[in-house]
Amino acid sequence: xxxxxxxxxxxxxxxxxxxxxIEIVQVNASGLAVxxxxxxxxTCDGKCKVSSSKFPxxxxxxxxxxxxxxxxDTTIRATPKGDQGWGQGTATWVFTNPAWVGPSTDFTLHATxxxxxxxxxxxxxxxxxxxxxxxxxxxxxxxxxELAKHIEYAQNTLKLPGKHGTTKxxxxxxxxxxxxxxxxxxxxxxxxxxxxxxxxxYPFASTWQGASTGGGKFSxxxxxxxxxxxxxQALGNFxxxxxxxxxxxxxxxxx
Length: 255
Prior knowledge:
By secondary structure, the chain is an alpha+beta fold. It has 2 domains: 2-129, Immunoglobulin-like; 135-254, no CATH class. It contains 3 helices and 15 strands. A hairpin with a 5-residue loop joins strand 1 (2-11) and strand 2 (17-28). The chain is elongated and about 85 Å long.
């Protein structure tokens, strides 16, 4: 029998559990493979445990796939704040058939590793995410055009890091004192603010590439105060929903 095993893993930024689903899809079967069923179990390696494992015996045909559903809980601590850990779910299954003496050997499919943490500023909830380099998106014709144009200038003209399509990543900074020093260097209070304007800095003060901690070039510009304020709130939500914690990398995409 030729078959396809497809795995789907999904997590939530504010949940300590995640799920993994496996589908066994028959491509073709002949001879003694016809009429085979699949059943299995889920396991988890790392800082995790299995909370539910359901993969009962199911006939595998071209018309109907066999499905296994597994749920995992992180075992990181809720306190003190700052704990994090990785977990990886695995689906294991066998095929059985009334014409066979016994089941097949084990087959396995690993899920994408998942990181869970309670290290995210602004929330006390544990959450879990999958590894990737997220991108904060600002549009020049969107809600924050002056902010977007400033970042575009900083990335393209000054060649500052964080640009979409590069590996010159920004890295999250969470220390409030260092963030304030970044902001004080790029946008000191002594710098006059025209009415309705605020000082915007890039790289963001909440990154290690900021004006003070970065030790290199930076850009500042007076932009619309509402756009600066709400654009900063959007960045905070980006950090939250992607669970971008200390030293996590990300990019900024200007569209």
